[in-house]
Write a structure and sequence with these properties.
Elements (H helix, E strand, L loop, with lengths): L17 E2 L50 E4 L10 H16 L6 E4 L7 H13 L5 E3 L5 H7 L8 E4 L9 E4 L3 H15 L4 E9 L1 H17 L4 E9 L9 H13 L4 E5 L4 H11 L2 E6 L15 E7 L1 H13 L17 E3 L8 H16 L11
Helix pairs in contact: 1-8, 2-3, 4-5, 4-9, 6-7
């Protein structure tokens, strides 16, 4: 998930909720299916059991990265954000441990809140001018800056998380099948909901975050066709404060809970903490995003409501990219980090995903990897 963070705004009153299959605008009135009795969803037949692991197992490859000078151009928050940036940093840390990249040859720079586009270009130029190579830009907000800067440094290798820079041959995209991981989050929500009524909170209404919404909707509907699903985006496209506003996340979650939702999935960056606090106050459940949020210090007080997290393995993508650079061969790097290469997944920390549900999840996962289930990356509403 992309984390453009802005300054924290005051909480606003939020009406819930738009049923994903239908209406065009948010509404406070419940609509669609759902089970008000609290008996749970009428579940679809379980998928066939997965015959074997549906993730490609790669032998640990070795390469000498000692000559690399690695640059990380972080999103707002930098190292220590307990989420998107830290996942990228973990990939670099693994390269230090396993590829011999020297710590002193790792240079990190962070974005500022609501910074001008020119600041991103300056950051990338500074790294390239300092002889850093390769340079990893963490987040799609760097796409325009890379398009402007990369041609000036043709011998420098760049990578960007969550975006593709057309025409820039020295920029490698590191993109993910967020919709696949979110499909399983939808299945989890359907199996865990007592009211057959669940919700989705998106930070900013961009095509990237809509991938999370699309997969979640499809997975929930696959598991429970009559389930009611509500959604709320905290800010429109272009206003990235939606990724850094826990108060808005809390208000959105409260609105959905008032409408009957008892499992909430967020793709809202730091605003997700507000979703968790609302869920804890109301005694309902939540699903985290990007990393295993059950184990994050920043949401430790709310971790008991977190039944799972959709894992987006930015650390895997960053490490695999650095391994490929060290081997001087980018040709075998995955075009998309999906289920088949371990690029997305789900967390089981906290013990709320039992063996029976895990078998269901692995069954759906196998069908996605085989192509029997095709997960859309665009919402149906």
């Amino acid at each position: 998930m992309r984390r453009m963070r802005g300054t924290v705004l005051a909480a606003v009153a939020v009406s819930t909720a738009l049923v994903l299959a239908g209406c065009a605008k948010d509404s406070g009135a419940p609509s669609g299916g759902g089970n008000a009795s609290g008996d749970g969803c009428k579940l679809a037949p379980k998928p066939p059991a997965a015959a074997a692991s549906t993730t490609t197992s790669k032998a640990q490859e070795k390469a000498d990265g000692s000559a690399l000078k690695v640059g990380l151009a972080f999103d707002i928050g930098g190292r220590g954000d307990a989420s998107f940036n830290d996942s990228a940093a973990a990939g670099v840390d693994k390269a230090v441990a396993e590829l011999g990249v020297k710590k002193e040859n790792v240079k990190e720079l962070s974005a500022g809140p609501n910074e001008a586009e020119s600041a991103k270009q300056t950051r990338l130029r500074q790294l390239a001018q300092d002889g850093v190579n390769p340079i990893i830009a963490v987040g799609f907000a760097y796409a325009d800056a890379l398009k402007a800067v990369a041609p000036s440094f043709p011998n420098t290798k760049f990578a960007i998380v969550d975006a593709t820079v057309e025409g820039a041959t020295n920029v490698t995209p590191l993109v993910f099948a967020e919709e696949q991981g979110s499909f399983l989050s939808g299945v989890i929500a359907a199996y865990k909901s007592k009211k057959c009524n669940v919700g989705f909170v998106g930070g900013v209404e961009t095509p990237l975050i809509q991938k999370f919404e699309a997969g979640y909707y499809q997975g929930a509907k696959a598991a429970a066709p009559d389930i009611k699903i509500s959604k709320k985006y905290l800010t429109p496209a272009g206003d990235f404060t939606g990724f850094q506003d826990p108060a808005k996340g809390n208000a959105a979650a409260q609105g959905m809970i008032s409408g009957g939702s008892d499992v909430l999935y967020h793709a809202a960056g730091a605003s997700g903490k507000g979703v968790f606090t609302a869920a804890k106050a109301a005694g309902v459940s939540a699903i985290g995003v990007d990393s295993d949020q059950y184990n994050q210090k920043t949401v430790e007080q709310e971790k008991d409501v977190i039944i799972s997290s959709m894992l987006k393995r930015v650390d895997v993508a960053v490490f695999d990219y650095l391994l490929a650079v060290a081997k001087n061969d980018l040709s075998k790097l995955p075009k998309v980090f999906d289920f088949s290469v371990g690029g997305v997944g789900y967390a089981t920390s906290g013990g709320k995903i039992d063996a029976d549900l895990q078998a269901v999840l692995e069954g759906y996962k196998a069908q996605i990897v085989s192509g029997q289930i095709k997960v859309s990356d665009k919402p149906t509403s």
